[in-house]
Amino acid sequence: MESSTSKAQTGGVVLGMVLTAHREAPEQLAKNVPGAQLNDNVFAVEVDGISVFLAPVQREYSNEDVLNNIHPVFTSEDEMQAIAEHEGHLIVTAASFADTPAARLDVARAHQKVLKTLARSEQVVAYYREGTTFGPAALQQAVQEDPPVRLSCPVWVWQGEEGVTAYTFGLHEWGLPELQVVDSQASPVEVMAHIEDLAGLLLVGGAVPDNLVEKQSRWLVAEADALNLSL
What we know:
This protein is an alpha+beta fold. Helices cover 28% and strands 32% of the residues. It has two domains: 12-151, 2-Layer Sandwich (TATA-Binding Protein); 153-229, no CATH class. Strands 2-3-4-5-1-6-7 form a seven-stranded antiparallel beta sheet. Strands 8-9-10-12-11 form a five-stranded mixed beta sheet, covered by helices on one side.
């Protein structure tokens, strides 16, 4: 079997969106980020040499995706209600064009540092990245992780009739194969923990051990490469 190690894309962009309870909150949150400067309605700050941009927008932007992708494990019922009633969005984008193997991880960590500041506000009711929305409690945990697995490639998991199925959502953005499990006999909690550990290994340039890889496959969600795991 070919090695499951893949090189992450160099440089890149990491984008996510903070949801707030009130319409005026995104601009105030951006102003509270140390060093942020306003230019043409977008705030900018440099974090460890990485440019991070904060753009307040109206709630209607991508609202359908936000509400249709609420993660049931990372979001409580009370948080779901607050998400449904939210009024503001703050798009947070980190970008770098540095040509080094670790550049994408540097960008993700800079993005995470800004989110860590934002997550302290009681105005924050959720965080959205492509394919996943989760509540403020999960966000506060995610900004503490290193590497930032849940911010980069959250794991979706469910119990089916034949066993547990799960997959990451986001590793393809790094030029890496998504990780997935189909009909595992382990518990959902065990499967999620194992996949998160392996995803973190990939993010820092490691490899999934060959004895855990059943086969190279297609991602369960869309057209992308994946590794089917034996867990």
